[in-house]
Request: fold
Amino acid sequence: MKNSGHFSFTQISGHCHNLAPAFHMRSFSIILSFIFILGCSSVSSVDDEHFSNISIKEDVLALDGKIDSCIVSFMFDSGCLVGCLIPDSTSNRILPFHEINYINGIGTTQVDSIFVCGFPYNSVNVNIINSKFKPQIAPNYAFDNRIWHFNLDSLFLRIDDDCGEIDDAIIIPIKFTERKGKKNAPMVNIPIVFSQNGVSIETDYYYLLDTGTPYGFVMTDPTKEILSFVDAIDARNYIDEYSLKQSNRKIVQFEIDFKFFDMTIPNLTCEIDTGLLSIDSELGNKFPHGDKPVVGTIGMRFLKFFNFDIDLQNKRLILRRSSCKFPSKAYNMNQFWCNDSGVVRRIGIESIAYKNGLHIGDKIEMLNRKRIADMPLEERDSLISMSQRLELCLSDGRLIQIER
Reply:
């Protein structure tokens, strides 16, 4: 695999050198419009580095935190470009005594302190958005020059100024977009060989570093060669409520093996999701990337194979192969998803469920003759994902049977 261009990755052994400073997707364009005021805090240390303060489940990286005296469970989302983001639905619990100033539907407020995994966060500014998701946090790239060390073997996050040993590490430069002259979005150029069933393609693109993406990659701006590759492999097409509103949106999910440096990671679930948000148009014109396109995001289903450092001090991503295994969520064999109320939000257009009459917006009342409202969420999701036979009773009285 060739290393083309200035931002291809390298492998470095030895000690650290002083290098020159070098949410989900539907909320992303709103987040980019935030104006945020950030402050800086001093760095503290944690004595017991074996204390687990992060977790990974179904490719979601979660960590503990505290806003003033309130305990918060955050999703660490390196694609969250405003630092600390809280859903409006839970802001009253987390921020009970703070006035929230809303501008164009987006709220901001100042708090006394924020700690992440016992370390002081570099801002006391909290953003609030009217949406349902887990509270999110990421470095405030504009001002944070520390190093965020994620050790997945010990499930420990450390935030400090010490780059430490980097023996046998893979070093990938981070190139930031700029907003008002300050660092904004972390972009990485990673040459990778994608392959499936004898069909392969060598790629050399830029991606937004986005731990909030529960896939290996989400291609929001796929090139013609990527589209040709996906047409030639086993892939599944989906529609959802947003697709119906935007005729140019396309959702395709596929699994690939990919060769990265001297390792191959098999069965990496990736997705093409176009029409709703273009990472290239949002971010690609904000930094000089030459002839290498920005095609989307790279996420946790890739990063979970490494102990990784987001080194904001030297603008680089440091990867070391981890030894732990974090299972991904089982692939949905029946190819439809519903929300907590049982309303279908996404479905595969080649699926048996779709061909038998299940469509976006249908509400499932009973699943295999059990009320969906009485079923634990994990049991419901397991049935929908893996069952060979399903009987769905819909709110309009229709009965749909699925047998694979």
In short: The chain has three domains: 25-36+51-160, 171-321, 336-403. The mean pLDDT is 85. Residues 377-386 form the longest helix (10 residues). The chain is about 10% helix and 40% strand.
